[in-house]
Amino acid sequence: MSPSIKEPQELQTIYERRFTASNAAYRAKLWHVLVTDFFQPMIARDAAVLDLGCGYGEFINHVHCGTRYAMDLNPRAPEHLAPGINFLAQDCSQRWSLPDNSLDAVFTSNFFEHLPDKLALKLCLHEAARCLRPGGRLIALGPNIKYVQGAYWDFWDHFLCLTERSLAEALENNGYVVHRAIPRFLPYTTINQPAYPMAFVRAYLRFPLIWPLFGRQFLVVAERCG
Asked: Which alpha helices (H) appear in 20-99, and where do they start and end?
């Protein structure tokens, strides 16, 4: 990976400038609802789960499972993780510090766009496939360049442009079967956006017919081939 996004100190600075205390509190409440109402049914209670590019742990802090891992290069990420989460400070395109067939699910949100190129993504997908058990799931959210368009470049650390179709094709070419590829799932960002009531978020998740009105992020769910 290029030095421009590999330096832990720069990642720390970006996160601290981007996510204020008030925004972090809202994001924690938001992710509690997203996990409880939508993602938890995809995760068995005894599963081993990795949050890839965990940020401040918004997903992994709220999911209920047997073993929880979080991977990131931000040196301050562990400060935001709940007790009992195993933190991996490493480049995702290098060999992961996990054994083969040791995970039931890999979750990632708004992370792949920070990788420098498609080779880094390919290497990351290979490592996820190595560590997932046969039938294990990869669940990925990210900005869909088809719908975000120029606003994608409002963030300094965005590099790799993806759609639900390009990510699905990457997965299918690298050891996965894609089960869901939703082009419009969640709105693009919580940065400088209204803090919606959690009742609104719960209602939104229950009515997929309205996702195309607001969704700018894709959701792709794939399974490691046996």
From this structure: 21-34
